[in-house]
């Protein structure tokens, strides 16, 4: 049985998607946004590195309709038709300007940023830019709810190892900055990330040894209750899982010929076996099943592929 | 499909003094850098490879686990490799400390700078520091008589220029007017008065915390007098990065997003006046014969009509794998077209999740056409 608190989209207001480069983090962000919108939720997708492509994956064309704080991508989703997806990009300099504005420094903000003065001085406190971006996200999460403009915020986290640095920044700032508004901001953001009713982390990996090892290491680091992140995990998502039991059975039976046909069958069977082994290893380590997204035989996914993957994802209890 | 010009790749590697591997995350850049280094050593060169945070298994595969630090360590090679292979695992902070030690005038100045929290943050976290220290390490090893080729695995980054422009970026940082504001009062002995008189700094202090700002002021004061040495060093590093001795190899995988990034890298390098000297495309789907997915699909259909389920399954499977390969060809085509005049190496993926040393050998063999 999956209790209400295990259902990602309704149990929390913020989902941060993280994974190493090349594992398909952006794909998974788009899949989750679709799955949540299909449940009738109004989703705000936030992308941090301004990487192009997410809008295409979400199937939107800008200017589809009115937007409140980001471009409207999709409306009328889900059986009730209430589901929607908005997309917006957050940059460190924008977050900084907003922050300065809330400190009553709006007039100065532009100048401080454009002259680069802040860049230099902000280097004094590691993670200040990360913290301000998270502060902005916290603001967006605060707006989420039945009366707000959206129900759920999904963040396409920064690439590679930067995600850990981002999530660690509040604790780092809270311990290095001894007072002032920045410290209070750090503590508030840290508390948001540590509150499972507000924030969950979704880790993405590929069904191969090294990416799975790296995921397990990251998981240990971010969920350690005494660590500097201590976030609650949502489901782990394994991207690009190939599954061909008929081909495997054929290879197993020894009934494959030599030549290209046989070589292709053995290649596929070996690959599927590796994928199955790695997924099983993750299930065992996590003590619960991961979400398996099937491998789509295309190198550039389309919005239709994403919509299909979303229906697959939605069959997993935690995403239902 | 143009045949990859294998001998070109070999002669490029043979004539390079510095070889920089760039590409986005997850394309096998570290493995590619290691493979090129191993092959260069086979060709008789004395190679040092600078790796940045390699996955543990690669370190294990190269026999580097626990051994690697900021000083080059010599690695074991098969007997038929005439040259030498050394490796360094970049420690950006340690490299920065070394630079401070070299340029500082007194022991006291060294101590003051290294102990300053602002310095620690710059050295370990300032965006671009890691890139700059990779470049600094490269420069240092380039001048080391033990080596005649330095292979660099660049930090994962969207911007190729982060690496190329890191020396300039750091110099700009140190040249910044904030630096002058912070240091000028100290020169006049009027620090407190002038510091407080700068409303912009007071404001910043209010926002980020006065103690944080005080650390910054202390740092810039301690740093005074050695910034010229830093600037000159950065100029030399910059010159090496842009010289003919330094070759840039772009590493990509056939996913359409990494191809876009590779094109972007190539453009950026070109705009900076640097030529891309080679392309390595990793993890390609093997094609299994010369036929198309279409012909395999037709064969599958025919077998189905003949009620040969096994043969239909085999042809269907072949069709699927070829379809992936064909899609990959479509997505890498713009990159192959753009870099049609440089040596290109195509590396097929393996079905099994191999130990990385095998992957290193595979890539090496593909790059050098063995």
Structure in words:
The complex is a heterodimer of chains A (320) and B (370). Chain A has one domain: 3-Layer(aba) Sandwich (Rossmann fold), CATH 3.40.50. In chain A, 49% of the residues lie in helices and 14% in strands. Chain A is built from 13 helices and 8 strands. In chain A, strand 3 and strand 4 form a beta hairpin. Chain B is of the alpha/beta class. Chain B has an 8-stranded mixed beta sheet with strand order 3-4-2-5-1-6-7-8, with helices on both faces. In chain B, helix 4 crosses helix 7, helix 7 crosses helix 14 and helix 10 packs antiparallel against helix 11. The longest helix of chain B has 30 residues. Chain B is elongated and about 85 Å long. The two termini of chain B are 19 Å apart. The interface between A and B is large, with 70 and 65 residues.
Profile the largest sheet of chain B.
8 strands, mixed
The number of helices of chain A is: 13
Q: What is the string of helix and strand elements of chain A?
A: HEHEHEEHHHHEHHEHEHHEH
Which architecture of chain A per CATH? 3-Layer(aba) Sandwich
Query: Rounded to an integer, what's the Rg of chain B over CA atoms?
Result: 25 Å
Report the major sheet of chain A: 8 strands, mixed
Features of the shown structure:
heterodimer; A: 320 residues; alpha/beta; Rossmann fold; eight-stranded mixed β-sheet; 13 helices; 8 strands; B: 370 residues; 18 helices; elongated
Question: How are the secondary structure elements laid out?
Answer:
The complex is a heterodimer of chains A (320) and B (370).
Chain A (H helix, E strand, L loop, with lengths): L7 H4 L2 E5 L6 H14 L3 E6 L6 H4 L13 E7 L5 E7 L2 H11 L3 H9 L2 H6 L5 H16 L8 E5 L5 H15 L4 H14 L4 E7 L3 H15 L13 E5 L3 H8 L6 H28 L4 E4 L8 H12 L6
Helix pairs in contact in A: 2-13, 4-5, 4-7, 7-8, 7-9, 8-9, 11-12
Chain B lengths: L5 H10 L2 E5 L6 H14 L3 E6 L4 H6 L11 E3 L8 E6 L2 H12 L3 H9 L1 H9 L3 H14 L6 E5 L6 H5 L1 H10 L1 H11 L3 H7 L1 H10 L1 H14 L3 H15 L4 E7 L3 H16 L4 E9 L8 H13 L3 H30 L5 E5 L7 H12 L3
Parallel strand pairs in B: 1-5, 1-6, 2-4, 2-5, 6-7, 7-8
Antiparallel strand pairs in B: 3-4
């Amino acid at each position: 049985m999956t209790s209400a608190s295990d259902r990602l989209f309704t149990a929390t207001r913020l989902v941060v998607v993280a994974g190493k480069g090349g594992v398909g983090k952006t794909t998974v962000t788009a899949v989750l946004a679709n799955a949540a919108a299909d449940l009738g939720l109004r989703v705000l997708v936030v992308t941090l590195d301004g990487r192009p492509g997410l809008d295409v994956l979400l199937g939107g064309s800008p200017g589809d309709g009115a937007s409140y704080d980001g471009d409207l991508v999709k409306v009328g989703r889900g059986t009730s038709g209430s589901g929607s997806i908005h997309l917006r990009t957050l940059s460190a300099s924008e977050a900084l300007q907003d922050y300065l504005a809330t400190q009553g420094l709006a007039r100065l903000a532009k100048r401080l940023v454009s002259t680069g003065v802040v860049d230099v001085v902000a280097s004094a406190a590691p993670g200040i830019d990360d913290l301000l971006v998270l502060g902005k996200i916290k603001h967006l999460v605060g707006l989420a709810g039945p009366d707000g403009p959206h129900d759920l915020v999904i963040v396409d986290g920064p690439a590679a190892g930067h995600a850990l640095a981002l999530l660690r920044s509040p604790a780092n700032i809270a311990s290095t900055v001894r007072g002032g508004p920045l410290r209070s901001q750090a503590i508030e953001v840290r508390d948001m990330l540590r509150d499972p009713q507000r924030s969950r982390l979704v880790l993405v990996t590929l069904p191969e040894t090294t990416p799975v090892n790296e995921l397990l290491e990251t998981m240990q680091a971010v969920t350690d209750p005494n660590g500097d992140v201590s976030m609650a995990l949502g489901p782990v998502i394994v991207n690009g899982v190939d599954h061909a039991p008929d081909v495997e059975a054929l290879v197993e039976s020894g009934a494959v010929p030599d030549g290209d046909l046989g070589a292709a069958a053995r290649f596929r069977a070996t690959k599927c076996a590796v994928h199955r082994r790695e997924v099983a290893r993750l299930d065992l380590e996590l003590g619960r099943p991961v979400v398996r997204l099937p491998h789509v035989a295309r190198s550039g996914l389309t919005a239709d592929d994403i919509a299909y993957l979303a229906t697959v994802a939605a069959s997993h209890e935690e995403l239902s | 499909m143009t045949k990859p010009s294998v001998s070109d790749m070999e002669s490029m590697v043979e004539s390079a003094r510095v070889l920089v591997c760039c590409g986005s995350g997850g394309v096998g850049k570290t493995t590619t850098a290691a493979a090129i280094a191993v092959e260069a050593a086979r060709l008789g060169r004395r190679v040092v490879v600078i790796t940045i945070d390699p996955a543990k298994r690669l370190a294990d595969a190269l026999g580097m686990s626990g051994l690697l630090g900021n000083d080059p360590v010599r690695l074991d090679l098969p007997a038929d490799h005439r040259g030498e292979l050394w490796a360094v695992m970049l420690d950006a902070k340690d490299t920065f400390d070394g630079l401070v030690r070299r340029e500082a005038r007194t022991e006291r100045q060294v101590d003051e700078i290294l102990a300053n929290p602002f310095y620690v943050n710059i050295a370990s976290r300032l965006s671009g520091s890691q890139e700059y220290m990779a470049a600094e390490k490269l420069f240092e090893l380039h001048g080391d008589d033990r080596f005649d080729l330095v292979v660099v695995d660049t930090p994962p980054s969207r911007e190729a220029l982060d690496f190329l422009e890191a020396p300039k970026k750091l110099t700009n940082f140190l040249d910044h007017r904030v630096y002058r504001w912070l240091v000028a009062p100290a020169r006049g002995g009027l620090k407190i008065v002038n510091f407080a008189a700068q409303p912009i700094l007071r404001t910043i202090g209010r926002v980020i915390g006065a103690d944080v700002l005080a650390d910054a002021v202390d740092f810039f004061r301690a740093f005074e007098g050695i910034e010229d040495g830093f600037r000159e060093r950065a100029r030399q590093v910059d010159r090496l990065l842009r010289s003919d001795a330094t070759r840039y190899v772009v590493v990509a995988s056939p996913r359409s997003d990494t191809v876009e990034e590779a094109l972007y890298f190539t453009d950026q390098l070109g705009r900076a006046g640097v030529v891309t000297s080679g392309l390595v495309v990793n993890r390609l789907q093997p094609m299994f014969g010369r036929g198309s997915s279409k012909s395999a699909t037709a064969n599958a259909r025919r077998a189905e009509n003949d009620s040969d389920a096994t043969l239909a399954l085999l042809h269907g499977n072949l069709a699927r794998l070829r379809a992936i390969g064909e899609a990959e060809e479509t997505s890498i085509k713009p990159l192959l077209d753009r870099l049609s005049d440089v040596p290109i190496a195509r590396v097929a993926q393996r079905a099994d999740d191999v130990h990385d040393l095998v992957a290193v050998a595979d890539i090496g063999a593909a790059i050098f056409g063995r």
